[in-house]
Amino acid sequence: RRVHGGSPIDLQGQEKEWHYTNKQNEKCDPVSYTEMKRLIGEGIVTPTTKVWAQGLGGWRDVKDVPQLKWGILLKDLPAVMTLSEVTSTILDIFLLLCAYYPSRDPDGSVMQPLPRVKRFLSDPSVLPHITQLLLTFDPTICGRVHTLLYTLMEDNPLTPRFFLTGGFFFSLMYMGSDVLPLCRLLNLTHRGQSFRIQHDNEIIRTSVLSVLLPPALVCFLHNHGAIKFAEVFLGEYETP
Distance between the two ends of the chain, CA-based, in angstroms? Predict the structure, then answer.
């Protein structure tokens, strides 16, 4: 069931991804982000405790891991903007840059190479970090991310590899009611991926969504477009 207003889902207590050492420098069992917050609050884990999680180059002090430093250690310090506000502002800057440097000329012809800002943001080393912002489940962030992803994937030769970022899966986890930017992104990209399955129906065979959504919904998206699909996506229907 969809929650009006996009109430965030707290997944921080489920993934035990943070490894840490005790005062004897012995490795302890991994804990979730929520448990790590508690350990820091109780003083069991300190700013100089060594921690490791997937994606870090090696064991690092808590104070040197941005997610722990800004999300836990310095979270309660007075701030001009919240983390959500900072993220939204940065995304707005990216959107303005993309709008200022369009992918098409005034005659509608696609320009190659793409503008530098779009090449940078769609690079395989950067794009996954943008898609992972969808896991915040914050409506103010997710709407901007979906709009930015649409802008980046439009006329982009890297679009066929977009599915490797997890963007489709993360998008379909979104529980907010403002799904039109999401549906526009799906409509633009779902049949343009380097992805095929065995199926008699060409739409199902060529859509990456065929493994994530019922076939009828995939066909509805293709045949009726993003706006109609958004209406069905929000509705309480057993079939489209």
Answer: 16
Task: In whole angstroms, give the CA distance from residue 106 to residue 128.
Answer: 31
> How far is Cα 202 from Cα 192, in angstroms, rounded to an integer?
13
Closest by CA position to 163, among listed 141, 133, 196, 137: 196
> Would you state the structure tokens that stand for residue 188, as one six-digit string?
């633009």
Question: What predicted TM-score, i.e. pTM, was given to this entire model?
Answer: 0.71
Per residue in 140-171, pLDDT (tens digit) is: 999 999 999 999 999 999 999 999 999 999 99
**Whats the size of the chain, residue-wise?**
240
Q: Report the SS3 class of residue 110.
A: strand
What's the rounded Cα separation, in Å, for the pair 79 and 82? 7
Give residue 166's region: left, alpha or beta (phi > 0; psi -120 to 50): left
